[in-house]
Amino acid sequence: MIDLNKESGQDVLSLLVAADELEIYELIHHAQDNLIIKKSNWIQQNLVKIMHIVSLYKSFKRLNEYCLKIISEEAHMIFRSSDFLSLEEPMLVSLLERDSLVMNEIEIWNSLIKWGTENTLNLSNQPVSKWTPQDFAALEKTLHQCIPLIRYIDISGNDYFEKVMPYRKIIPKDMKTEILSYHLTNSTSQLFKLLPPRSSPIDSNIINITHTKLISSWIDKKVITDVSSGSHKSRYRFKLLYCGSRDGFEATKFRELSGSQKGTVVIVEISKTKKIIGSYNPSNWCGDINSSYYDVRKLNYRYHNVPDAFTFSFGDRSDLQSAKILRKIGNKILYNPHHANAGPFIADTLYISDQCNKNDLSWYYDTQHSKEVAFSYNFQVDEYEVFQISREVKE
Fold first, then answer.
1. Rounded to whole angstroms, how far apart are CA atoms 225 and 323?
2. What is the rounded distance in angstroms from the CA atom of residue 53 to the CA atom of residue 171?
3. Pick from 20-34, 148-162, 372-386: least confident
4. Is the pLDDT of residue 393 over 70?
C-alpha cells in the first residue's frame, strides 16, 4: 500500500491521473483527500496547473470543487499568478462566469486585459493611446466571450474612466450605453446587457467580503493596503441581525432585533448615491439603568461612553480607497428610554432617524475629513443593516 503522506504533491497528482486511467476508484478517493487535507499549500502554489488537469477528469470532482472554492475566496491566487497568462480560454471564461469571485472587479478587468494582450498575435507594443483600429479589433476578437462577463456595476466611476475607457472600443455599444446610464443615474432598473454584481459570502445588500476585511482590520486597529491580496483575512463572522428592506425601517424594529446586542456593525446606504456610512459599537445601543443623562433638545437622552466605538464612510462603495474612518475620544452612545424613536445615535457624529427611508432627518458628521465628506447632513436612506460580529479566527 502506498503511503501518500510521504509522496510530493506532484507525485500524488500524477498517481491520481494514473488511477483514473486504471479505474482504481478507491485510490482516486484517497489521493484527492490527501491533496486536499495534507497538501493544501502545494495546491495553492500550483493552482493554475492543477486546474488545467482536474478540469479534464470528471472523477476529480472533489478536488475540482476544492480548487474552485479557493479561487472564489482568494481569487488573487490565480489572477495574479505567473501562470495566469497561459490559462486556456475555456477555463478563463468559466472563472469569469462565477458569481462568487472575491476580488475587486477592476483588478479582474486589468488581469483580463493583460491576458488578452498576451494572447493576441501581432498586437502593437505601443501604448494603448497609439493603437490602430486593427489592434482594438484583434483584442476584441480574443476577448469576445470574456468582455460581457465583467461586472461593470462593481467598477467605480473613477476606475472606469481611467482603466476601462482606454479600451472602450472593444466593448459593445449597447453595453457602453448601459454603463454610462448606471454611472449617471445609479439605477439598475434599465440594465439588460450588464450582469449584476457578484454575490458575496456575507448576507448583505450593501457590502461584500472585501468591505468586511477592511472593517475587521479597523476593529483590530491594524492598517492594510490591499484587502484583496489574501494577506489579511476577516477575523470576524458578520451575522445579519437587522435589515431595513426586510424588517422595516422603524426605529423600534432596529432596537427590537439588534439594539440590546453587543459588538455590532451598522451599515447605511445613502439614497440615490453610491455612498455608505457605518459604525462599530462594541457595546449595545440601549444603555442600562446606570447610564448617565445627556441633554439633546431637552429630551434627556441616556448615554454610555464607548471608547473603542468608531464610525466610517465610503465615498463610493465600489472604491475601497474612498474609505474614511473616524475614531473619537469619549464616544457617547445615546438612547432615550422614553422616546425610542431613533436608530443608531452617536453624539455629534451619527444619527439614523425613524423611518429613515421616508425622510431626510438622518445625519453623519466627520470632524476629521469634513472637506471630503459631502454628505454630512440630512440624507435619506435606501438600505440599512446591522451585523453582530464574533471572532472567527484565533490568534
1. 12
2. 32
3. 372-386
4. no
- Spatial distance between the Cα atoms of 248 and 383, rounded to a whole number of angstroms: 10
Contact predicate 207/102, CB 8 Å: no
pLDDT band at 29; cut points 50, 70, 90: very high
Whether residue 372 is predicted with pLDDT greater than 50 in this model: the reply is no
Q: Which helix (H) or strand (E) holds 49?
A: helix 47-54
Q: 303 or 348, which is more confident? A: 348
Is the separation of the CB atoms in 235 and 215 below 8 Å? no
Q: Is residue 187 part of a domain?
A: no
Please indicate, yes or no, if residue 172 is contained in any of the structural domains.
no
Q: How many domains does the chain have?
A: 2
Average pLDDT, the chain: 84
- Dig out the grid coordinates for 239 from the structure: 451575522
The residue whose grid cell reads 439598475 is: 188
End residue of a domain, out of 73, 107, 125: 73
Of the residues 73, 91, 122, the one at which a domain ends: 73
Contact 256, 266 (CB under 8 A): no
**Pair 70, 100: CB distance under 8 Å:** no
**Which range (29-38, 246-255, 314-323) has the least confidence?**
314-323
C-alpha cell at 367: 470632524
Q: Are 98 and 71 in contact (CB under 8 A)?
A: yes
Q: Treating both helix axes as pointing N-terminal to C-terminal, what angle do 9-22 and 25-38 enclose, rounded to 10 degrees? A: 160
Determine, yes or no, domain membership for 275: yes
SS3 of 31, please? helix
- 325, burial (CB in 10 Å: exposed 0-12, middle 13-18, buried 19+): middle
Residue 254 CA from chain centroid, whole number: 24
Question: Residue 5 to residues 9, 41, 59: CA-CA distances in angstroms?
Answer: 9, 14, 21
Task: Round to whole Å and give the CA distance between 100 and 65.
Answer: 13
Q: Using alpha carbons, list the distances in angstroms from residue 145 to 94, 106, 116, 281.
A: 10, 18, 11, 46
Position of cell 495566469? 84
**Torsion angle defined by CA atoms of residues 141, 146, 148 and 149, in that order, rounded to the nearest 10 degrees:** 180
pLDDT reported for residue 367: 64
Does 192 reside within a domain?
A: no
Residue range(s) defining the domain that contains residue 326 = 209-391
235 touches 220 (CB < 8 A): yes
Q: What angle do CA 250, 254, 256 make, to 5 degrees?
A: 110
